[in-house]
Design goal:
Blueprint lengths: L2 H14 L2 H16 L6 H15 L7 H17 L1
Length: 80
Amino acid sequence: MTTVAIRKKLVDYLKVADDKKVKAMYALLEDDIEQELEYTPGLKNQLDAASAYYKKGGKMVSAVAADKEIKKLLQSAKRK
């Protein structure tokens, strides 16, 4: 089963699970859930710049197009 399918099953299950099970699952994962993402100043600047560019109508690449380009680059790197 793919990770995407597992995520969907978990989300669907959490919608109908009884409170006791939801609390038990939360207790199991609490440390991971409560961790804050820490961005380096450089990464935050890059994300802010990309966001501003997008909001001004800048051209963005779709995830599908990016995946294709990445696969093409990886294949050409293997040949070298």
